[in-house]
Amino acid sequence: MNHDRSRALYDRALSVMPGGVNSAVRAAIEPYPFFVEKGEAGHVVDADGNRYVDWVMGLGPLLLGHDLPDEVGAAIQRRASEGPMYGTPTEVEVELAEFVARHVPSVEKIRFVNSGTEATVSAVRLARGHTGRNKIVVMQGGYHGAQESTLVEGDADHPRPSSAGIPQSFAEHTLPVPFNDEAAIREVFEAHGDEIACVLVEPILANYGIVHPEEGYHEFLREITEEYGSLLVFDEVITGFRVGGLGCAQSEFGVTPDLTTFGKIVGGGFPVGAIGGRAEIIEGFAPAGDVFQAGTFSGHPVTMAAGLETLRFAAENDVYDHVDGLGERLRAGLTDIAADQAPEYTVAGTASMFKLIFTREGPGRDALEEQCSAGCRQEPTCPRYDFCPKNAGDVKAAETDRWRRIFWGEMEDRGIFLSQNQFESQFVSYGHTEADVEETLEAYKEAL
What we know:
Layout: H1 4-16, E1 36-40, E2 43-46, E3 51-54, H2 70-81, H3 91-103, E4 109-113, H4 116-131, E5 135-139, E6 152-153, E7 160-161, H5 168-171, E8 174-177, H6 182-192, E9 196-201, H7 217-228, E10 231-235, H8 248-253, E11 259-263, E12 273-277, H9 279-282, H10 301-316, H11 319-341, E13 346-348, E14 353-357, H12 392-396, H13 400-413, E15 416-417, E16 426-427, H14 434-447
Parallel strand pairs: 3-15, 5-8, 5-9, 9-10, 10-11
Antiparallel strand pairs: 1-2, 2-3, 4-12, 6-7, 11-12, 13-14, 14-16
Helix pairs in contact: 2-10, 3-10, 6-7, 11-14
């Protein structure tokens, strides 16, 4: 493939933007990323005219794909034509709030913001304000946006900032523990229970995996937070309105958190975030309560219209049947390919999410007939159970450099656009087709 124009654009970008990008993950591909000119259905076309099957989908927001259904596109354009914004409430934000509250089990009230990061920042502040406590528990490798409270690594005894620019005194209020480790959770609550404002967790480690919870793990989190008077916060920025359909991942797992953060799909491809939950807690936000939160662009009418029409279209059409069905086909096909060509690798994902993790060990070909058929589910009876990733550390121990430096480029050469590193999820959209799936599986077969 020719990438001359992308290379020239990247050279220009380096002159005016740090690293040549506006989000660090976009520069993960060496020696430079390709620049996209336009999207079409389940594809993108780059600045040099190269066409790719796009499984990144904007890192998750594009449930419907790049070509919006006529009624969705028309509603967005109509709203935009009425003026960009007003600095006062609009009816459409009320309608989107009502829609989310009707469908998501944990949501009685909701506050819209402008990004997933802003949503988790506000949720942590609200949890602290509601409980009068300072510490939060997070999962090692879980991602909750570029914020000081969660850019923390290490363990509960030795937390430290994972980024320059964050004081150690901030990190000391954050207690990182391994995902799927009930003993570690119990230990931090026994040591700090009366100081813990909340446990902040992705229902599925979707930004560092994909890693499913073991059976009973979220039920345990629900029980121990109630026992100690802490809040359970589900970060559904990625899984929201993708896993579990309109009820989100919490409906799939049957566990209702106190607070839920949203982003991506709830804005229909436009900048968005939200914090929903029990009314008595959400009422803690100003002006109803004393936890300050505000934003010039919060509840932006174009974003609200995009989110509302996207979710309405999903509710009234076969969107989830389509995307989940293609996701199942992808994972099943990848399971067969990996069993034949790379039996140590792990297929992960659910609904319309998928990933092939380059794990280093496996049970051997002879045992693979009994494995999870279309993505790891942490089933103790599966022959891969002792080898599949249980937490972010297990994913990090995979062959991440091989994936990024060799495999990604092999797939790009075959016209397949995958997430820019081993950790990020890949997503199916309503714009994808069975032909896209077959083309992608053939590319995996050749590249592996």
